[in-house]
Design brief:
Distance between the termini: 79 Å
Strand order of the largest sheet: 5-4-3-2-7-1-6
Structural class: alpha+beta
Number of domains: 3
Radius of gyration: 31 Å
Largest sheet: 7 strands, antiparallel
Strand content: 15-25%
Number of helices: 10
Shape: elongated
Number of strands: 15
Order of helices and strands: EHHEEEEHEEEEEEEHHHHHEEEHH
Length: 395
């Protein structure tokens, strides 16, 4: 049994009347609407619920009835039928019923506990208090931290709290509202408004992801930012496009640049963060800031351009900028009508330099991105055209 004890007396009309909600705007719970869903869910799942309103006992049960040749179970209070059945909130799970009663305790400055398996008669008639005794939610109790947050944030801004621990759940003002499609490296508690469905869960992962991206971009804790950006592809943060929503703050921009281009560059970095950081760094380059080539490297570049030109690829129609680095493992970048090439391919010889130039030239000439069918079609079309030229006849 779980006991939920709140100061003050619950309004009976809030329990028995549909469409009644008496919560203040800043409240977490939805008592008035939520309690009816909770009562229905508990009874439908085979549990029991009794509310002591001071010395007044409100005992709930089910009564079978036929409606248009179908059996329903009307919810009763002290033997009297109420205006809803056990099918109210028919998709609700046990944790959702617990959530409604627990958030009400938070709103009313009450508390909840498990006094043991025997009914705690000492709580059955406490003057000036509402005591709710529930059987059937005991399995939720050990996992209650997955329903109501019980940790302190390790980083926060006005719209988002970051709590410790890997989690599949996203929270809104301390209450679980969604199961993410992949594990999250941290536990996130959204503090700004979230539009919820009737069952008090978020409408979609897309909308929540957008809010998380905006909040993460505003964090100031660089170590937390580093962990989020390098969580790896097994975590949901790896695919978040944090730059896309809102304007990231200086701490985020600096850490992104360090992890993309600096001495602490990470191969495991969020690919969207890395791509956008490289692009912004490239755009900020001005003539004279590019890396210089030694004599051997300069000859590699010259030879590669000559061979490509002879093969029908006029790479030099686009400006070419040599960069010290574009990040770990990145040889080239096509951006805003310019080709950026790092020093990496020069370490592998002229053929690698030519391959890098050809790829970035092809992106600019075709207007298509990596790993797309149109880009693939462009490359094959050019290859087949070259074969036709050499053969002297079309396919």
């Amino acid at each position: 049994m779980i006991v939920f004890e709140n100061p003050g007396l619950i309004d009976v009309a809030a329990v028995t009347t549909m469409g009644v909600s008496v919560k203040d705007e800043g409240a977490i719970g939805y008592f008035g609407t939520g309690i009816k869903f909770a009562i229905s869910t508990i009874l439908r799942l085979g549990g029991s619920i009794t509310i002591w309103r001071g010395a007044e006992k409100l005992e709930f049960g089910l009564e079978a009835t036929m409606i248009r040749d179908q059996e329903f179970h009307l919810v009763t209070m002290n033997g009297e039928r109420l205006g809803f059945t056990s099918m109210l909130g028919r998709d609700w799970e046990a944790w959702m019923a617990y959530r409604e009663l627990a958030t009400n305790c938070m709103d009313e400055k009450g508390n909840s506990f498990m006094p043991g398996h025997a009914p705690p008669s000492c709580f059955s008639a406490r003057e000036g208090h509402t005591v709710i005794m529930v059987d059937g939610l005991d399995d939720v109790w050990p996992e209650r931290h997955t329903v109501i947050l019980q940790t302190k944030p390790v980083a926060e801004v006005d719209i988002l709290e970051v709590h410790p621990g890997v989690n599949r759940f996203v929270f809104y003002r301390g209450v679980r509202i969604f199961r993410a499609p992949k594990p999250l490296a941290f536990t996130y508690n959204i503090m700004e408004h979230v539009e919820l469905t009737e069952d008090r869960t978020a409408k979609s992962w897309y909308s929540l992801e957008t809010q998380l991206e905006r909040g993460i971009g505003r964090l100031e804790d660089r170590e937390i930012l580093r962990q989020i950006m390098t969580a790896g592809d097994m975590f949901a943060e790896h695919s978040m496009d944090i730059h896309l929503y809102g304007t990231p703050r200086e701490a985020f921009v600096e850490m992104a640049r360090t992890l993309t281009l600096g001495g602490a560059a990470e191969l495991n970095l969020n690919p969207q963060v890395a791509e956008r950081t490289r692009a912004e760094a490239a755009r900020q380059m001005v003539p004279g800031t590019e890396a210089s080539l030694n004599q051997a490297q300069a000859r590699m570049l010259e030879r590669a351009l000559e061979m490509l030109e002879a093969g029908g690829f006029p790479v030099q129609q686009f400006p070419i900028t040599i960069c010290q680095t574009l990040g770990p493992g990145v040889h080239g970048l096509a951006l805003d009508g310019r080709i950026f090439i790092s020093l990496l391919p020069f370490g592998k010889g002229t053929r690698e330099v030519a391959a890098t130039l050809l790829e970035e030239f092809s992106h600019l000439a075709s207007g298509h991105e990596d790993c797309t069918r149109p880009f693939q079609d462009y490359l094959f079309d050019r290859l087949l055209s070259q074969i036709e030229t050499i053969a002297g006849e079309p396919f």
